[in-house]
Amino acid sequence: xxxxxxxxxxxxxxxxxxxxxxxxxxxxxxxxxxxxxxxxxxxxxxxxxxxxxxxxxxxxxxxxxxxxxxxxxxxxxxxxxxxxxxxxxxxxxxxxxxxxxxxxxxxxxxxxxxxxxxxxxxxxxxxxxxxxxxxxxxxxxxxxxxxxxxxx
Length: 152
Known about the structure:
Elements: E1 2-7, H1 25-36, E2 45-48, H2 52-65, E3 72-73, H3 83-93, E4 97-102, H4 106-116, E5 130-134, E6 144-149
Parallel strand pairs: 1-4, 2-3, 2-4
Antiparallel strand pairs: 1-5, 5-6
Organism: Pseudomonas shirazensis
InterPro entries: His_Pase_superF_clade-1, His_PPase_superfam, SixA
Pfam family, one: His_Phos_1
């Protein structure tokens, strides 16, 4: 299994609610930079947080890759979602090649949990950072971090 975890691009500092914060122009550029790293990858699905900035980031990735499948919005990819719940949901879906588009602190904790098997070593994920993990199954401590890239 290959799993890519992408943090949304830079977002405006304020909106009516955290969920409504939109990407800045710099955030759009960051998202496009990270999307380019996914060119040629055999993605089966793009799973995305319902928050606006994640939706915008995922849409830019979808467009860049000319990915024909619709984005799959899931409630378990919000900033404060449970890492264990996200892993359990991912395991049930059974995809071999999937991209998750979400937020801190979830993305860093998720990468750390899948790589190390605990929450004490979250990955440093700045805006539009992209982690690539590989393993037989999305279980804590059983995936290897193959790459962690940050937009320039």
